[in-house]
Amino acid sequence: MFPAGPPSHSLLRLPLLQLLLLVVQAVGRGLGRASPAGGPLEDVVIERYHIPRACPREVQMGDFVRYHYNGTFEDGKKFDSSYDRNTLVAIVVGVGRLITGMDRGLMGMCVNERRRLIVPPHLGYGSIGLAGLIPPDATLYFDVVLLDVWNKEDTVQVSTLLRPPHCPRMVQDGDFVRYHYNGTLLDGTSFDTSYSKGGTYDTYVGSGWLIKGMDQGLLGMCPGERRKIIIPPFLAYGEKGYGDKIPGSAVLIFNVHVIDFHNPADVVEIRTLSRPSETCNETTKLGDFVRYHYNCSLLDGTQLFTSHDYGAPQEATLGANKVIEGLDTGLQGMCVGERRQLIVPPHLAHGESGARGVPGSAVLLFEVELVSREDGLPTGYLFVWHKDPPANLFEDMDLNKDGEVPPEEFSTFIKAQVSEGKGRLMPGQDPEKTIGDMFQNQDRNQDGKITVDELKLKSDEDEERVHEEL
Ligand SMILES: *[C@@H]1O[C@H](CO)[C@@H](O)[C@H](O)[C@H]1NC(C)=O
Ligand SMILES: *[C@@H]1O[C@H](CO)[C@@H](O)[C@H](O)[C@H]1NC(C)=O
Ligand SMILES: *[C@@H]1O[C@H](CO)[C@@H](O)[C@H](O)[C@H]1NC(C)=O
Ligand SMILES: *[C@@H]1O[C@H](CO)[C@@H](O)[C@H](O)[C@H]1NC(C)=O
Ligand SMILES: [Ca+2]
Ligand SMILES: [Ca+2]
Known about the structure:
CATH topology of the largest domain: Chitinase A, domain 3
GO molecular function, one term: calcium ion binding
Radius of gyration: 39 Å
Number of domains: 4
Number of helices: 11
CATH architecture of the largest domain: Roll
Mean pLDDT: 88
Strand content: 25-35%
CATH class of the largest domain: Alpha Beta
Largest sheet: 6 strands, antiparallel
Number of strands: 20
Shape: rod-shaped
Signal peptide: 1-26
Structural class: alpha+beta
Function: PPIases accelerate the folding of proteins during protein synthesis.
Distance between the termini: 72 Å
Subcellular location: Endoplasmic reticulum
Low-confidence stretches: 1-19, 21-39, 463-469
Helix content: 10-25%
Bound molecules: 2-acetamido-2-deoxy-beta-D-glucopyranose, calcium ion
Keywords: Calcium, Endoplasmic reticulum, Glycoprotein, Isomerase, Metal-binding, Repeat, Rotamase, Signal
């Protein structure tokens, strides 16, 4: 994707430097070496007046460097400066592209180091000089600060800063990762950070959404892991750089903190923490009405919700679309008293956009404990008979035989059916309310009593339900 060799356009941007190079080559091959100008110095004098405390790497022959410099004569008069052009030098060092004095003077330099170089004429522009700029036999004084160094043989360098003791899985190609990062150049200049955006950076790994170096550097990370990833420019933004923050041919350092990741193919991960073996003869299934306690957090441990805040267990009918899909699945096959850990990927939770208190694309970690289980009712039903309803339903309901059924008679009748095990009410709601709702349904003209016709009418209408609902 990016050419690994030294970029030629950076030379075009520096007409003076280009001139210097051409002349240097002439001097180096012919005049300069053959007849040294005879200055007092044999070699470059290097004064390392600022050496940074940390120096993970020193400039070697063939490295690509970026640096700023000032050039002055012995009398202090400035003849050149990268600052004046507002462009630093980006070039391969030690291969004759610079004057020999500079090629030698940069060797062994650290990023952020500052050096003063004294370059004798025979390692500079010799006895000819450079028309209009450098007089013959000039000794040159350079002040240099190194900002960047890399080599086209470089690979992505990864160092783990913190690895959580528990690593359930590692990032693979195709995973969707949520992470925080701080991005700096080698000299420490910050160019970007996820923290300024109010959320994690979320992306697929290994699908070309990221610069190549990042696609590589994130592989194998655990949830919660912190890494430093150093990326050479040919695996980052190349010769062009990016925006006004990332210069061309810059090495990038990313400090990365992975919050969570998942794969679009993930299912709910279920781990049983404890299970009461003796009483576990019945497990939850689709359609069951369950009550459960839960704690919900992000993978990094951030607590989101807990049923303990509400003082009562959460209630749900499994498969009724009342809870996230991951819970509908994760709560099946449980027995009362069982505790589970569920890891729910976002496509089975709150998706890419998240929900109140839940970041988009977040993986959720649940701890659930099943409190109770009962058979549920089909959707829309308030009551079902376990067998056929009584043949003389209205007569049975009309307890005082006056031809009408007020709420009191209705309620007494239904409660009797339930307690005799002949039918059951919708779970999860106050029975009084359910019975009230049933009465309302049956009392077609809303006069506060059910007549035999009203009961028939309702039954005829709901032919399908006649055997199950009143
Ligand atoms: C070069 O000159 C500028 C302006 O005088 C100064 O700020 C800078 O520190 C000097 N030295 C280097 C290495 O750039
Ligand atoms: C980024 O920098 C901030 C401020 O220094 C720090 O709190 C945070 O932990 C850093 N994040 C990473 C991923 O290194
Ligand atoms: C399960 O066990 C309980 C109590 O031991 C019992 O009441 C119930 O009928 C059993 N259920 C099944 C399906 O065996
Ligand atoms: C949730 O957290 C509370 C308080 O830390 C704890 O008592 C409870 O056992 C946890 N698990 C469940 C399933 O509620
Ligand atoms: Ca009556
Ligand atoms: Ca009526």
